[in-house]
Amino acid sequence: MMAKVENNKTHIQQLTNDQLLERFQTEDKKIYFDELYKRYIPLLYGLCLKYLKNIEEAKNAVMEIYGEVSTNHSLYIIKNFHDWLYTFAKNHCLHEMRKSNSRRFVELVDDKVNFEKEFTLFDGNRSSEEEKALAVCLKKLNENQRKCLEYFYNDHRSYAEIVATTGNTLSKVKSYIFTGRRNLEICIAKELKKAEKEDFEQQ
Amino acid sequence: MELKDYISNREGEEANQLERRSMNDPFLREAIDGFDSVEGNHLSVIRKLEEQIGGKKEKKPIKSRPWIWIVVLIAALLAASPFLWKTIRQTIENAGQKHSNQNLSINENIPVSRDSALHADHFVNEESTSQSDSLPYKEEKSSPLSIPEKSDQKKAIFISPTLTSEESEESNIAKSPELQEKTPNTTVNQTIESKNPSESQENKTQITHTSSTFGENEFISYFKRNYDRSLCKGQTISFVVNFYVSPTGHPGNIVITENNCPEMATEIKRLLLGSPIWSKTNRRVTLQINL
Q: pLDDT tens digits for A73-121?
């Protein structure tokens, strides 16, 4: 009996998030949802910490979200649990913030910003045009942004390591990297368009 | 690297990979921001939260937790203890009552005849029983335990409850002024029909006895008052009886060691068993009575 339970537990732990969601949706067994939610606890707790700025409140919020999500009918039809849970949890935290009437400054993330292309540009193989554009754009960035981006993407240093190297605060390092990436993306896009235009004109 | 690992170790290439991933994942990015914004032992909090969620499904079956059964058993015993105690007490009381009723029936209320004394002679040991077995007993017209018919009612022995109220005492005493003189401190009244044919003219003889103390002397006078005078008539009767007064004050283990009138043996036992409660209990008594 015990061995059977253990086997079942191990089996569940080996399933991917998508498989767990699928099993839950088809078999309607809470054990799958619990395992899935358990995997999201660090993310949820961190998210709630960001908005609520309090460990206890964040803890409570995680449990409240669990209660609300587990009884939510949308759970049976959603396809992307990750994004759905993120939106659900964020809304919950924002609602909690409004309830407590606290004036907390929270930097809202623009979800629509997609750095995938730029990211690939940094890591993957680059064409001569892309290489050229990147070199031009990096020069256009301010020194802090450029340095932080280089440390982060070329040297594979973590935020903490960059903080230690540069002496800047963590928030500043993050800001340099984030803003630098955005500026770089815009710049590269412009440079590539420009190069395309020049090529077209030459032809 | 998982986010949990990242919380405890934010250095190295793996941490960098996670941070890079967070660039495309707002959920992860905001979570990292959250951990950066509030200081504390986040890992233990996460562990507790996981236990809270996981704990619900990881509950061991009751089978594997014998202490639960022990606790349940103890709780059940504690819960039932007043009832059990009550039941035990009731059983003991009932047993005691039954015993005392038995004695009462022998002592005071049930018609005390020689045959009934013989039947109820469970206190008498074998020695005395063998002696009494050989003794003839009086044939009675009706069984003392049977319900008397109307015509026999006068002859029947009436069972009167033990009265303790002064009123009942007074009324009984008032009915028998002679006896009132003899036993002024009466507490228990008995109405017994005398089986002595010589006394049968008086259908009912009220024997009023029992005083605040009852011992050897009281028994001798009680015996002299109540014994069947038709036995060994004209003969000087002398016997020595040995018995044990139980903690409840009832004579038992009756052994007649000397007796010059064998017919008297049953009468001795009858009167002993039917005697009032003895004051001094838990002792062996040897009595010599000369009539």
A: 888 888 899 999 999 999 999 998 888 765 566 555 555 455 555 455 5
Helix, coil or strand: residue A66: helix
Domain annotation covers residue A59: yes
- Strand partners for B189: B208
Residue, of B148 and B14, whose pLDDT is higher: B14
- The complex's ipTM works out to 0.85
Using CA coordinates, name the residue in chain A closest to B50: A38
- Using CA coordinates, name the residue in chain A closest to B26: A111
Q: Which residues of B touch A50 (CB under 8 A)?
A: 30-31, 33-34, 37
Residues B97/B98/B100/B106 CA torsion (nearest 10 deg): 150
Shortest distance, CA B97 to any CA of chain A (angstroms): 55
Q: What is the pTM of this model?
A: 0.50
Domain-located, residue B98: no
* Residues 6 or more apart whose Cβ sits within 8 Å of residue A126: A134
Choose from A91-105, B108-122, B192-206, B213-227 the range with maximum mean pLDDT: B213-227
| Backbone region of residue B194 per phi and psi (left: phi > 0; alpha: psi in -120 to 50; beta: other values) | beta
Interchain contact, B10 vs A58, CB within 8 Å: no
CA–CA min distance A70, chain B (Å): 11
- The residue from A66, A100, A134 where one domain ends is A100
Cross-chain residue pair B57–A31, CB shorter than 8 Å: yes
Helix and strand counts by DSSP (H, E) for chain A: 10, 0
Indicate the number of domains in chain A. 2
In the listed set B55, B79, B97, which residue is the last one of a domain according to the structure? Answer: B55
Same domain? A95 vs A120: no
- Among residues A72, A100, A128, the one where a domain terminates is A100
Give the domain range for residue B116. 108-290
Residue A3 falls inside a structural domain: no
Q: Check whether residue B31 and residue B141 sit in a common domain.
A: no
